[in-house]
């Protein structure tokens, strides 16, 4: 789901722009007044959509295009390998189900945030603010976690963004090495190829104004489309019998598929950012609205390339399908370099939200007011350098592209994309709007359990495979 063209992804999620994270969202002198308004029905008159301030609101079509750009990224090239873990038939069915689950959870998240904004009478809430509000207004057992909720949410957001950057570092190193090995003898190690790009990655991370990357981002989007075309060209050649690939994979490897598929299809960051910036946000959740149309197209594209890639290459499929293309073909070499360039551009965009979350939530609030702007800028550049250093350390330590993608998906998106939206919805409708026989409560509890199981099982399976692969010298 990480896209070379996504300039808005997650940016509004971590920086608390509406409310002060250190103060209670509900523990104010106006709490009784607010509750009275809610009980008397006045809160229903407040429409958060009318109280949002966006300098450049997007139309429905623009939002749909941004959603497609933000949700289709490196994960699509790893989906054929994910089918190796699940099996062809199991993979097809599971991808459709996970696509439906992801879309439903995004509906839950956006709808529940709207309900909480009405209760709190604010235009919008960031993801950390939503989690804190959920703990404060939800079941009593959650109240004790309210002070920790923003920090936990920010941890997953930061881990997710840094994890994407790690995937990008490994992706560029692996693909450039695959091309260079055709011309440089003896072959140079992946470690050295990756280290060659430390300075370029550092320089693009130091770009503070994302508008400077806009022209390159447009070029990256065109490269992405070209890459999909080349993938179609290769996968349709010499297709074996459909029965040559197993219908079902080993059960123990299914969590690896789950993590990669969730990484690819779950777009919570893109969705919140785009819905907050729409000129007509009420169109977002309609039956034929932006979300349903966009996620249907995204799921279809991922499913198509996963099926065709696994069908064509079978168990020989690699962590990125571009690595299966004939290395001696000039076309394959060109597309590997071009897509690596697109991913390189996207690195700065994906690192931006993590930097902003750390800076606005943990650095600026804890420095003296008289601190000069120059020193604040130094702090920001230190954070940017630290993010690049961490991504390279992790990428060099675990240069396993497919397993890293699966780990990020299972660990981060099981929480951000499944469990947390369920917690927010449960709290938004607490205690007397949970439906007949409190079905919303039971449904959300089921989603929370599913998220926890996905996080634990997926993370364990990925870490186990990473340790096993590294111990055997497989990189």
Give the helices and strands, then pairings.
Blueprint: H1 11-14, H2 31-39, H3 60-71, H4 74-86, H5 88-120, H6 127-137, H7 140-143, H8 149-180, H9 190-196, H10 198-205, H11 214-235, H12 254-265, H13 268-276, H14 290-313, H15 330-363, H16 373-397, H17 401-428, H18 439-471
Helix pairs in contact: 3-13, 3-14, 4-5, 4-12, 4-14, 5-12, 5-14, 5-17, 6-8, 6-17, 8-9, 8-15, 8-16, 8-17, 10-16, 11-14, 11-15, 12-17, 12-18, 15-16, 17-18
Walk me through this protein's architecture:
By secondary structure, the chain is mostly helical. The chain has one domain: Amino acid/polyamine transporter I. Helices cover 67% and strands 0% of the residues. The chain has helices at 11-14, 31-39, 60-71, 74-86, 88-120, 127-137, 140-143, 149-180, 190-196, 198-205, 214-235, 254-265, 268-276, 290-313, 330-363, 373-397, 401-428, 439-471. The two termini are 24 Å apart. The model is unreliable at 1-12, 15-31 and 37-43 (pLDDT under 50).
Please provide the ordered H/E string of secondary-structure elements: HHHHHHHHHHHHHHHHHH
**Total of DSSP H or I helical runs spanning 4+ residues:** 18
Structural class: mainly alpha
What's the architecture, going by CATH?
Up-down Bundle
**Count of individual domains:** 1
- Name the shape in a single word: globular
| CATH fold topology | Amino acid/polyamine transporter I
Give the tally of β-strands: 0
Task: Give a concise summary.
The chain is mainly α.
Features:
mainly alpha; Amino acid/polyamine transporter I; 18 helices; membrane; 475 residues; AA_transpt_TM; transmembrane; globular
